[in-house]
Design brief:
The chain has 455 residues and is α/β, with parallel strands linked by helices. The protein has 16 helices and 13 strands. The protein has 2 domains: 204 residues, Rossmann fold, CATH 3.40.50.300; 163 residues, 3-Layer(aba) Sandwich (Rossmann fold), CATH 3.40.50.300. It is globular. Bound molecules: adenosine monophosphate. Adenosine monophosphate (AMP) binds next to helix 3.
């Protein structure tokens, strides 16, 4: 299929062609015609599939020519994080450059006065995180009764972050005659319920089986003792041909510590998490996109959906607490048809989470013995298609003793950072919003220390 066959306006087509896109991605080919017919749509697609353009392109055409009234936006896109909201806003600028559309970005961390000023002038497209939107709504700065198109993007992440009550509230202020589009990488029962509640006779489009990691990502597992994580990461960074990488951790504090440690070792690394000032986050992200920073050490939410295409590697320094997070993390690489490599550092304490991940991705990991890979084995030594369950109970002690000695022998100066190996004893409150940019909560995971109520 060609873009010309989609019935987009000449202005939008021109902007798309200038981006160098040759043909629509599968989600675009499927979703755009439905959106043009004003159908409600559920899009099951991960980031990296071109899903943002699948709703922004038809929205631009649907909204072109109309005029927004003061404080009454004509469309609303809800995003879970500031970064994603900013990225979607960039998409509107890029694809909508030949149409006259006004837009506003309502996210925490930016001046409210400026945002209110824009709203007062009238906006066609409002892109917002739920917290800031409700805040402004409750102050009377915004009215939602002129919304014609509502997009709930990254719905599964909204659920994880505890945003569903906020979304419920927001949707109750929007007239039911709207067109509603909901995008999600996975379809847990709660999201299914959401679609039944908010969408009218929706058409479902899906581009990959829910929660299946991109085919283009090779996945590897290293079994280790938690105290060896820094050294093993250092070794992997040296032996893999890392161009740019995300390194994921479960806790914001550890993000800072690891970034510092890596910088100390001479790596071009920087932290990114929700406690950093917005200007710093924006700067870090821009530098990462430009390639000035090669290793982005981050928490899940801060990195969610960040659109950088040339990521060669993802390192899971901590095993993610949910299997969905694993899928989202490794989806940072292997994008836009390129291949990528994802490494997981796990200890026997992570077994419960590893089991959940293996169940979701329907693959068994076979641990890679990286000791034998010194000198840069190109393949990383594992066939990712034939994963075998790690036998932590039997092998871990012996294996770790061996590994520790090996590291000491080979890497005398690379003593692991002490605080990385001493998990904090803080348990997160259940159902609490976490790493939420607008809330500033602290705990994003448990690292290696699983509280007993989860065992
Ligand atoms: P998304 O899934 O929306 O995060 O998009 C992932 C990346 O794909 C972005 O960098 C887009 O610019 C790019 N992209 C979107 N549509 C196309 C297309 N039809 N052809 C090539 N690249 C695209």
């Amino acid at each position: 299929m060609k873009f010309d066959e989609l019935g987009l306006s000449p202005e939008t087509l021109k902007a798309v062609k200038e981006c160098g896109y040759e043909s629509p991605t599968p989600i675009q080919a499927k979703a755009i015609p439905l959106i043009q017919m004003t159908r409600d749509v559920v899009g099951l697609a991960q980031t990296g599939t071109g899903k943002t353009a699948s709703f922004t392109l038809p929205m631009i055409d649907a909204l072109a020519g109309g005029r927004a009234k003061m404080r009454m936006p004509r469309s609303l896109i809800l995003e879970p994080t500031r970064e994603l909201a900013a990225q979607v806003a960039d998409n509107f600028d890029t694809y909508g450059k030949y149409q006259k559309l006004s837009k506003a970005l309502l996210v925490g961390g930016e001046s409210m006065g400026e945002q209110v000023k824009l709203l007062e002038q009238g906006v066609d497209v409002l892109i917002a995180t739920p917290g800031r939107l409700l805040d402004l709504f409750e102050r009377g700065s915004i009215l939602l009764n002129d919304i014609r198109i509502l997009v709930i993007d990254e719905a599964d992440r909204m659920l994880d972050m505890g945003f569903i009550p906020d979304i419920d509230k927001i949707v109750s202020f929007i007239p039911p005659t709207r067109q509603t589009l909901l995008f999600s990488a996975t379809m847990p029962p709660e999201i299914k319920k959401l679609t039944e509640k908010y969408l009218s006779n929706p058409k479902e489009v899906s581009v990959a089986p829910a929660a299946s990691p991109a085919e283009t990502v090779e996945q590897f597992l290293v079994n280790l003792h938690p105290k060896d994580k820094n050294e093993v990461l250092d070794q992997l960074l040296k032996q893999e041909k890392v161009e740019t990488a995300f390194i994921f951790l479960n806790r914001k504090k550890d993000v800072d510590l690891l970034a510092k440690w890596l910088k100390g070792k001479g790596y071009n690394a920087a932290p990114l998490h929700g406690d950093m000032a917005q200007v710093q986050r924006t700067k870090t992200l821009a530098e990462f996109k430009e390639g000035k920073i090669t290793l982005l050490v981050c928490s899940d939410v801060a990195a969610r959906g960040i659109d950088v295409n040339d990521i060669s590697h993802v390192f899971n320094y901590d095993v993610p607490m949910t299997a969905d997070d694993y899928v989202h993390r490794i989806g940072r690489t292997g994008r836009a048809g390129k291949t990528g490599r994802a490494w997981m550092l796990a200890s026997d304490r992570d077994q419960k989470f590893m089991d959940a991940i293996e169940k979701l991705i329907k693959k068994k990991f076979e641990p890679v013995d990286i000791k034998s890979k010194k000198g840069g084995n190109k393949s990383g030594g594992s066939d990712s298609k034939s994963f075998k369950k790690p036998d932590h109970q039997k092998n871990e002690r012996k294996d770790n003793d061996h590994k520790s000695k090996d590291h000491k022998a080979n890497n005398n100066n690379n003593a692991p950072h002490k605080s990385q190996s001493q998990p904090q004893k803080k348990s997160p409150p259940k159902n609490k919003k976490y790493d939420n940019d607008d809330e500033g909560d602290d705990v994003v995971g448990f690292g290696d220390d699983i509280p007993s109520f989860l065992k």
